[in-house]
Specification:
Elements lengths: L1 H50 L11 E5 L4 H12 L3 E6 L2 H15 L3 E5 L10 H8 L3 E6 L3 E2 L10 H29 L2 E6 L12 H21 L4 E6 L22 H11 L5 E2 L3 H11 L3 H24 L6 H4 L2 E2 L2
Parallel strand pairs: 1-2, 1-4, 2-3, 4-6, 6-7, 7-8
Antiparallel strand pairs: 5-9
Helix pairs in contact: 1-7, 2-3, 2-7, 5-6
This protein binds 2-acetamido-2-deoxy-beta-D-glucopyranose (NAG) (2 copies).
């Protein structure tokens, strides 16, 4: 026994320089990786606050097209790109709102606007006319922001129409828009496409499974395209925001460290373009995403279920009670 101990010890002593080098290499590797990601975080989230985004959006083209442009995040993208001197194409379904927002942007930022009433939610909507409408414009930036969801509900309670609308809006709309603007971008060798995949597209969600499924689809679509077009000078970003104060969240929510106002969110997200291809767009959301990534599947589902079950029970009760008007269920919740 003693003999063995001495042997092991002397073997260790003889090999210790090798072990030390291996140890050092491992420490260096992880240290450098850590420094690398810290530097990337700095470039994406800190530096733009002082020196502005890496990408000069105006150089990408004359026009920025934004879907779901009349409310919330979409509207903030429209305003902030106009502030940078871009002309804005606003796409949304309500012509009156479109006119109002377009006039406001023209007056505030002295840029041109073009309004395109289009109902992405309608599965029967025809895209040929839209393609023709957009054809003449030098579109340098596309923000696929429009998206709809429904209140937390077991799938069997969700109306077929709502499912069709959601697929039409969250998936088909974004893919078609991307296809319309790409030829122009490829020709010029520059352009930015931002697809709102939402952090909820990276985590399966009970009672919102169709919604998170559509967003996961958009995330995969976007990442595939990055490989197809990334080498051609086109920036394609999969944006994974968590909660932002818009009309998609309950009215009584107040901004917090983790839940920013749409305007603050968009300012941060524009700073990440050209640095991060797949990002939450907002540093506190990146912290949340990191925390979620540390959970096991079991823990994840426990938390999600707890968070959504109360709402689900209320929604089911409303639905089964013929006396309550439950407008949320005849129509999907929408943000444009
Ligand atoms: C858009 O289409 C949806 C789904 O077909 C429909 O429910 C909604 O009323 C339409 N909205 C407008 C403004 O036309
Ligand atoms: C993206 O989707 C989220 C909900 O998943 C929504 O709150 C937000 O307004 C959308 N737009 C962008 C560009 O983040």
């Amino acid at each position: 026994m003693d003999d063995l101990y001495t042997k092991v010890l002397s073997a260790y002593e003889r090999s210790s320089p090798v072990l030390a080098v291996v140890g050092l290499a491992i420490v260096l590797y992880h240290g450098l990786r850590w420094l690398g990601s810290a530097f990337t975080m700095f470039r994406a989230f800190v530096a733009p606050r002082f020196v502005g985004p890496v990408v000069n959006f105006k150089q990408m083209g004359e026009w920025a097209a934004i879907t779901g442009a009349t409310d919330g995040i979409g509207k903030c993208y429209a305003e902030q790109l106009a502030e940078k001197g871009m002309n804005i194409i606003l796409l949304s379904r309500n012509p009156d709102k479109l006119k109002r927002v377009a006039t406001e942007i023209e007056e505030r930022f002295r840029v041109k606007t073009k309004i395109v009433p289009f109902n992405f939610t309608n599965p029967l909507q025809k895209y040929e006319a839209l393609k023709t409408t957009l054809a003449g414009y030098d579109i340098g930036v596309l923000v696929n922001n429009v998206g709809i969801s429904h209140p937390s509900l077991p799938l069997l309670y969700v109306k077929d129409q709502v499912i069709e609308d959601m697929i039409a809006c969250n998936i088909r709309g974004a893919i078609q828009m991307t296809k319309f603007v790409l030829p122009g971008m490829v020709e010029k060798g520059r352009g930015v496409i931002i697809n709102n995949a939402s952090m909820l597209g990276t985590m399966p969600l009970p009672y919102l499974s169709t919604y998170s499924g559509t967003k996961a689809c958009l995330d995969f679509f976007t990442r595939g395209l990055q490989n197809e077009f990334g080498q051609k000078g086109i920036i394609i970003q999969s944006l994974l925001p968590f909660w932002v104060i818009t009309n998609m969240v309950p009215k009584d929510w107040k901004p917090t460290f983790f839940t920013p106002l749409a305007d603050d969110y968009v300012r941060a997200a524009l700073g990440t373009v050209g640095v991060l291809d797949r990002t939450t767009g907002y540093f506190p959301h990146t912290i949340q995403r990191w925390l979620f990534s540390k959970l096991s599947d079991y823990q994840h589902y426990m938390i999600m279920k707890k968070a959504l079950e109360e709402a689900r029970d209320k929604n089911v009760k409303d639905l089964e009670n013929p006396n309550t008007q439950a407008p949320a269920f005849s129509n999907s919740v929408t943000k444009s």
